[in-house]
DNA sequence: CACCCCTAAGTTGTCTGACAACATTCGAAT
DNA sequence: ATTCGAATGTTGTCAGACAACTTAGGGGTG
């Protein structure tokens, strides 16, 4: 492993060194707790200054695979693997890769992961929801209903509804994951709630699906809740014009459980307050 | 906002500054794309050197809420929220918090999240698996079968099997999430594959559940695959002695689909090569 | 007046050197 | 043999400087 220069033309010397250092660690087969070379040694080995080495190590620390103790040294963290999960591997790698357009395929993949979690979350929510949590969902639904009539944006309330469903599972991990997913691409909810979305009826359709999810959860019908959540995700994919082919099979699955268990727990939500 | 000294006696000045800076950003209500003060200004404001400021900003960059452009400045990232998802909020916060024992409740919660993803992944895998991916699962199964006879550890192959299932969804996001979850707590698989696990039959039971998952996926029976995956997770919870109460309802659900669609695609896996 | 190039100032990225805080080690005194 | 302490090495922090880059503004040209 010689100098870095030349091989990588990329900017941000520190991230290059961080990558090479991480590769070197796994390549050397260093186990948890193993001590890394000192900063001075690394400086010589990579041919960069200590500032760069420190910044690279700082990156690895933030990534969780390295830990440092002042006066002692740097060590491989106990959990050497990835401690964090990020969507869309392509982006968020270097620095500000805002312009890296996410492909439709990637969005479709993420929606599918959403499907897995949200369908299951709706299922569990139907089994465990408390009155307070139902009220929280209803409040979000109501805000969306108002926005539907006034033609305003309500993607925040959309997100809040889904988080409320996840919260009703009484599982903080699921709730946090849902919040994470929602925050990640609130952009994908924009086409539903902007002017075009209101005009084309996307907002109305989405809201109807939300109501169906809520009703199933309120009724305690886990299968119907799963089906309604699946239908909602499939509808979102359709509205975004993504690849529908992959979702055909899931549509078929959800149709096993007809959503006839709808009851009248909530009234006045559809027409907004 | 005055100097930092005194208020926080804690070590790692940079992480303190990082926290204060992050708090300052949200407190100022800076929106995505807003420019942060220059490093020189921040040095004066926090009363620290530029190295500390740079390390603090580096942390925020790694966290994803800040982005820098050389020659221009530092900006609030487009997605101000969390870009990464980490399990177990308590740990992995500061440095080496190895000793923070994870509660049974947290493990149970994480298993439930695993259930959501793995059950859905098995479902999708049954619909999309290719011969190559089936072979990959079979190879992992075979390695586990060998380990079952020799009484050796195979938790790595256990993980590999589940990742292979996730890979069969043809969805890299799901695969990466499964790999993430598996890596996170490979510890939880140890009680299945250590000596005690072999003696108590836990390894055998787990392997039988794996085979059932594989057979359902090989047969292309999505419902059976979901049921088998659910049964596997429920079995794992039982073996770990976690709270079984929460899993009763899920067990009931899986029983809707009797796993009678088992066929004989694979032979010789149960008895190990 | 509109447009383009080019200079200048400002900002982040990197380098260098030094000192402080802390950990480890090894020798000396008890 | 045990304990204490100094020496040494490592990371954390500080200070100053230059390089690479971006941006804004001025001057020239059409």
Can you give the helix content of chain A as a percent range?
A: 55-70%
Radius of gyration of chain A: 24 Å
The low-pLDDT segments of chain A are 1-9, 90-100, 254-273
The CATH class label of the largest domain in chain A is Mainly Alpha
Assembly state: homodimer
CATH topology name of the largest domain in chain A, in short, is Four Helix Bundle (Hemerythrin (Met), subunit A)
Distance between termini of chain A? 67 Å
Structural class of chain A, please? mainly alpha
Give the number of domains of chain A: 2
CATH architecture of the largest domain in chain A: Up-down Bundle
- Strand order of the main beta sheet of chain A, please? 1-2
Average pLDDT of chain A works out at 79
Per CATH, the superfamily of the largest domain in chain A is GntR ligand-binding domain-like
Order of helices and strands of chain A: HHHEEHHHHHHHHH
Q: Major beta sheet of chain A, specifics?
A: 2 strands, antiparallel
Count of DSSP H/I helices of chain A: 12
User: What does the overall shape of chain A look like?
Assistant: elongated
Task: Give an overview in words.
The structure is a homodimer of 273-residue chains. Chain A has two domains: 13-76, Orthogonal Bundle (Arc Repressor Mutant, subunit A); 104-254, Up-down Bundle (Four Helix Bundle (Hemerythrin (Met), subunit A)), CATH 1.20.120.530. In chain A, 60% of the residues lie in helices and 3% in strands. The first copy, chain A, is built from twelve helices and two strands, in the order H-H-H-E-E-H-H-H-H-H-H-H-H-H. Chain A has helices at 13-28, 39-46, 50-63, 104-128, 131-150, 155-167, 172-184, 190-193, 195-200, 202-219, 222-240, 248-254; strands spanning 66-69, 73-76. Chain A has a two-stranded antiparallel sheet with strand order 1-2. Mean pLDDT of chain A is 79; it is low at 1-9, 90-100 and 254-273. At the A-B interface, helix 3, strand 1, helix 4 and helix 7 of A face helix 3, strand 1, helix 4 and helix 7 of B. The structure holds a DNA duplex (30 and 30 nucleotides).
């Amino acid at each position: 492993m010689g100098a870095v220069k030349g091989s990588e033309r990329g900017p941000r010397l520190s991230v290059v060194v961080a990558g090479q250092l991480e590769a070197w660690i796994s390549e050397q087969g260093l186990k948890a707790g193993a001590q890394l070379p000192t900063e001075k040694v690394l400086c010589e080995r990579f041919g960069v200054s200590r500032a760069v080495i420190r910044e690279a190590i700082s990156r690895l620390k933030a990534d969780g695979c390295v830990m440092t103790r002042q006066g002692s040294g740097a060590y491989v963290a106990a959990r050497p693997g990835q401690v964090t999960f990020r969507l869309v591997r392509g982006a968020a790698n270097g620095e500000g890769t805002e312009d890296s357009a996410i492909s439709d395929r990637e969005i479709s993949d993420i929606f599918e992961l959403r499907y897995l979690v949200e369908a299951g979350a709706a299922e569990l929510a139907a089994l465990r929801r408390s009155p307070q949590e139902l009220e929280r969902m209803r409040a979000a639904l109501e805000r969306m209903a108002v926005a539907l009539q006034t033609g305003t944006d309500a993607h925040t309330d959309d997100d809040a509804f889904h988080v409320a469903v996840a919260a009703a599972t009484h599982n903080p991990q699921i709730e946090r994951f849902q919040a994470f997913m929602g925050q990640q691409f609130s952009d994908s909810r924009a086409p539903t709630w902007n002017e075009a979305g209101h005009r084309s009826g996307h907002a109305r359709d989405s809201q109807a699906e939300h109501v169906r999810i809520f009703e199933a959860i309120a009724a305690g019908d886990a299968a119907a809740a799963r089906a309604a959540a699946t239908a909602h995700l499939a509808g979102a994919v359709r509205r975004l014009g993504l690849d529908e082919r992959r979702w055909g099979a899931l549509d078929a699955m959800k149709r096993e459980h007809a959503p006839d268990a709808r009851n009248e727990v909530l009234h006045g939500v559809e027409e907004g307050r």
